[in-house]
Amino acid sequence: METTYTVYIDEAGDLGISRGTQWFVLTGVLIKKDDEKEIRNILSQIKTKVNLSYIHWRTINSFQKKSYIANQLLRAPFTYCNVLIDTSLISNAELTPVLLYNYACRLLLERASWFLNDETANADIVLSSRGTSRDDELMDYIENDIFIYLENNVKNIFGKVSAKEARKWDMLQIADVCASALFSAMEKDGFGFYHPCHHLCLSKKLYRRNGRYNNIGIKYYSKKMQLRKEAIMQNTICKK
């Protein structure tokens, strides 16, 4: 019998070209359905410790709480992959935010399909709901465009596609943490600093092939967008 996973998808950043954030991160967290009870117990312990009813990274101002959450999530069995877009390198005429998001989703699910194929597994897909018609549009695009594209390489690997509210869906909160931590590593804050430490902690869970995560667990929309580690470390308060 094949192992069954769920791919939980969330994002960080804003794709509004020339008016949003510089970086946009789309993250997919792959979790075995049989592991979800264990992970919910871990999340329950985390939320009790940090006194939160649910985990939403952007609303947590405490560095210590974020550090605790990231460190404790290493106990949870999951794997994640990401697609990154530097919006400053996208021209206004090149692509609309919707087309950019759709293509990022295609790249993300392509990597998820590699993981599932390696594991001889299949997966449902759960999107973090926006509560708008965009949820239905994206689900339709995944089912009628991405699945057809991926079928050339991997058959019968994805099942049901749905959208859930992250506040009420624990596993989506892990996707929020992973996406937001990577976003903080890539996007300078208002004082010109990057904050990579929480992502570096969570990066132990990145999807790797033959020990590599470049273009696997982390995929840039194009090669010209790849941010050098030196640039981050030169503007990081916690240099090692």
Structure description:
The chain is of the alpha/beta class and 240 residues long. It has one domain: Ribonuclease H-like superfamily/Ribonuclease H (Nucleotidyltransferase, domain 5), CATH 3.30.420. Helices cover 39% and strands 20% of the residues. The protein is built from seven helices and six strands; from the N terminus they run ββααβαβαβααβα. Strands 5-4-1-2-3-6 form a six-stranded mixed sheet, with helices on both faces. The longest helix is centred in the middle third of the chain and has 22 residues, at 97-118. The model has no long low-confidence stretch (mean pLDDT 90).
Topology of this structure?
Elements: E1 3-13, E2 23-32, H1 36-50, H2 63-73, E3 79-86, H3 97-118, E4 121-128, H4 133-150, E5 158-164, H5 170-186, H6 197-202, E6 218-220, H7 229-233
Parallel strand pairs: 1-4, 3-6, 4-5
Antiparallel strand pairs: 1-2, 2-3
Helix pairs in contact: 1-2, 3-4
